[in-house]
Amino acid sequence: MKTSNIHFRTLREAPAEAVIASHQLMMRADLIRKLGNGLYTYMPLGLMAYRKVENIIKQELNASGALEFKPTVVVPGDIWKESGRWDTMGPQMLKAKNRGEQDMVVSPTAEEAYTAIMRQGLTSYKQLPINCYQINTKYRDEIRPRYGVMRGREFNMMDAYSLHTGDESLDETYQAYAKAYLRIFKRMGLEVIPVKADTGAMGGSGSEEFMVESEVGDDTLMICPDCKYAANVEKASCKPDAAVDNDGNPQKKTDAAIEEVATPNVFSIEDMEKFFGCTSKMFIKALVYRVINSSLDLSKAPFCEKLELKKEGNNAFYPLSYVCVLIRGDLEVNEAKLAGALKASEVCLADDEEIRAVAGAGHGFVGPVSVKCPILQDLSVNDMHDGFAGAGKDGFHIKHVEPGRDYTPWMNCDVRTVVVGDKCPVCGGTFYSKKGNELGHIFKLGKKYTQSMGVTYLDENGKSAVPTMGCYGIGVDRVLASIVERFHDDKGIQWPMTVAPFQVAIVPIKYKDSMKDAADKLYDELTKAGIEVLLDDRDERPGVKFNDMDLMGFPIRITVGEKNLPNVEIKMRTAAEPEMIPLDGAAEKVAAMVRDALNTLNS
To answer: Residue 15, Cβ neighbours under 10 Å: how many?
Structure first.
């Protein structure tokens, strides 16, 4: 193709709002243009690269045994009510009504649509497993969309879903997707780190994220250097460390009764350390959390008898509840873990009025003995003894607190935030961290959606059974932006051969006379050899052409100049210096360079 056939305009400077390299370069190279806040249009060159990414995903998923399907983007709200996520998904979900006043949803994800589609006609175990994927548009009303297509409101996702008779079949497909993902990202030149992850609003029993290291990543990864353990900080667990006293010895149980101590102006853990002269590991920190849309059974939980229980289809959840989280004083609560433990769509710290209603005192004086809501105790408190805590009365704390003697936790689970220096739960190695961006995610959803949406089949014994489900996603736009983020220099993009809009750019100094003849000869020979070529036939200064080609990042540039003929200059985008070779045979050499690069990435 010739540049005269492509509508594009390059920018010397990126828009002020573009603060990361991929956003800046994609705007400057005219790969994307902004239509609205968080809304971007792919221009022709950008769409070419996007389609390359899309095709690699399709090729590898097809090879793994998945089949492509395509549901609609706008779906009935009724299926979201069936699953129980109509209310719990939150304000990110764009809802509308059609002319018949039917609730509709602009899909933020497609679990409900897939489940509703595939339950039609499902009657027998012989039809399972079912394994289908789509690449389709999604919309999530992000509060602060940023970084261009890295985090837009409208975006493109590969969503795949599978239905199975049991966990063994689900695990086979789960592992097949994991292998396909590694192949997909390798072909694009990206090194990914598979990490254990929080299932979030998706639910289910387990999940794994495929992260790429990035200075501007949204996620923090906790990594063990001594084994293969890696996890998103939202999910990471660590080896338990003992609660110790001031001398560093394990805390000892006390028979002393609780004693109330006046502590005016003592609010924080730091204040308590100074006041009592103790290490923070002696303190039981109590935090009251507001819990939104918990589907956990709270019917027998303390102080929950009068909670409102809402039902939608087969789902029941509590729109609003409270929990008091206890954690060792030197640690912080991981709210993603907490939401997962409570099966809630959201958790957040309660405000002062709510805290007083539940705990009888303000923040800083909340204690486990008198609080009037369920107590969720972090595992770090399990081996604490003779501790300090809030008294549930403003201006007072208590000492000689014995967990299990002086109060009874309703739930006991890991909700601590793992930090650098904590120990790996697998081998005991010391964690370090990296910033990363999530490119792909695989989930074992279990029966969360099939159960709530009434999906059944007849098993081998002719009995009704509910299938288990898997879910697998890749953010196509985010992958493309991550490629640019990974492969660029101060001149522009450096596309890997597999995803470049064009593999070769031919740049005649002037497109006329002998230079035109030579450029046309190269273009014809390379095109016939199956190479994707862009011929720059613009009437522009050489410097403008070179700068544009470097900005757009085409892997190989051939420069045709009158002074050098019958030789031409070949330069790899990533090479420091060009190479001069005869015009005759240049196309053959360049074609071989393209194929070698493709073979390396695709091997």
So the answer is: 13
pLDDT tens string 157-195: 999 999 999 999 999 999 999 999 999 999 999 999 998
Residue 130 CA from chain centroid, whole number: 25
Q: What is the pTM of this model?
A: 0.84
pLDDT in tens, 340-396: 899 998 899 999 999 999 999 998 999 999 999 999 999 999 999 999 999 999 999
- The secondary structure of 464-519 as a DSSP string is EE--EEEEEEEEHHHHHHHHHHHSEETTEE---TTT-S-SEEEEESSSSHHHHHHH
Euclidean distance between CA atoms 165 and 89, whole angstroms: 28
Rg (CA), the chain: 30
Measure the CA angle with vertex 221, ends 144 and 207; round to 5°: 85
* Strand positions, DSSP E, 253-395: 259-262, 284-294, 310-312, 315-328, 346-349, 375-378, 387-390
- Indicate the average pLDDT of the chain: 93
Tell me: pLDDT of 201 over 60: no
Encoding tokens for residue 175? Answer: 């592992």
338: left (phi over 0), alpha (psi -120 to 50) or beta: alpha
pLDDT at 205 over 60: no
> Which helix (H) or strand (E) segment is 12 a member of?
none
pLDDT digits (tens, 9 = 90+) for 466-475: 999 999 999 9
Residue type, 45: L
The Cα–Cα gap between 564 and 544 comes to 20
Summarised one tens digit per residue, pLDDT across range 589-603 is 999 999 999 999 999
End-to-end CA distance of the chain: 28
| pLDDT of 202 above 70 | no
Helix (H) / strand (E) element for 232: namely strand 230-232
Instruction: Report yes or no: 136 and 156 within 8 Å, Cβ to Cβ.
Output: yes
* Alpha-carbon distances of 137 from 26, 108, 475, rounded to whole Å: 20, 9, 10
Report pLDDT digits (tens) over 100-140.
Answer: 999 999 999 999 999 999 999 999 999 999 999 999 999 99
Rounded Cα distance, 142 and 480, in Å:
20
Size of the chain in residues: 603
What is the spatial distance between Cα 297 and Cα 287, in angstroms, rounded to a whole number? 21
Pick left, alpha or beta for residue 148 (phi over 0 → left; psi -120 to 50 → alpha; otherwise beta).
left
> What residues pair up with 130 in beta bridges, in sequence order?
163
* Distance of alpha carbon 595 from alpha carbon 418, whole angstroms: 46
- CA dist 377 and 372 (Å) reads 15
Q: How far apart are CA 133 and CA 67, in angstroms?
A: 6
Preceding omega of 409 cis (within 30 degrees of 0): no
